[in-house]
């Protein structure tokens, strides 16, 4: 079998990634590459950040070479209109014209939904900070290759304050939890078959704890998810308990299933 050509899209601004690196935290693109390498060494992976590109002329002439696209997370909010977000939506629309298989994770799903005519808003039921509990796969999901061999109810690393409130046309809803009704979807746009996840199977809980510590001031003062650092530490303790029972192969199964689907195409 030939090596697969994958495009990984980095959703964060360059300044956010620079602060990640200063704090010893991998970028989301780096986390994706590491997780992908767990399943396959036969991958040619390019990373592209639409936020930092004034035009897409360098990548668009060769975009059809990619067998698949994975679009990862970001600290941005899709409804905060700015040029960097508009560039990402515009690039997603170009991907819809050219790449057949897309895995859109968290922010990536929100960009894909918006580009396809759906709507994303601030979550009405709170946020996921490092973990999403009791995600439940519905009947559509149980019959979808995304969730092959996955437990019907599971926890996952997650970090989001927003949610999909209106699905793109003909999208199929696959899973929910008490925070986000839309935890995963499947829809088609242009030539693309998009599998969307609101959570992060590709990111470890250890990285999520690092992100919580990195963002603690924002989580208290701006996001108002916690009253103080004591509450943050209690939440970290809760996630550390999940680490003890979580199994890597189960946590990342969606990523494996997407790769298997890509190889079979």
Structural account:
The chain has helices spanning 14-22, 28-39, 83-98, 107-115, 139-142, 205-214, 216-222, 229-245, 248-251, 253-264, and strands spanning 4-9, 43-48, 68-71, 101-105, 119-122, 128-129, 132-137, 153-156, 159-160, 162-166, 172-176, 184-189, 192-197. The protein is an alpha/beta fold. The chain has a single domain (4-264), classed as 3-Layer(aba) Sandwich (Rossmann fold), CATH 3.40.50. A hairpin with a 7-residue loop joins strand 11 and strand 12. Helix 3 (83-98) packs across helix 4 (107-115) and helix 6 (205-214) packs antiparallel against helix 8 (229-245). It is globular and about 50 Å long. It starts with a strand and ends with a helix.
Poorly predicted runs are: none
The tally of beta strands, per DSSP, is: 13
**Tally of DSSP helical segments:** 10
Range of strand content: 15-25%
**Which outline best applies?**
globular
CATH architecture: 3-Layer(aba) Sandwich
Largest sheet features = 9 strands, mixed
SSE string, helices as H and strands as E: EHHEEHEHEEEHEEEEEEHHHHH
What's the pLDDT, averaged over the residues? 96
Structural class of the secondary elements? alpha/beta
Q: In which range does the helix fraction lie?
A: 25-40%
Q: Return Rg in Å.
A: 17 Å
Count of structural domains: 1
Sheet with the most strands: spatial strand order: 2-1-3-4-13-12-11-7-8
Would you identify the CATH H-level superfamily?
A: Class I glutamine amidotransferase (GATase) domain
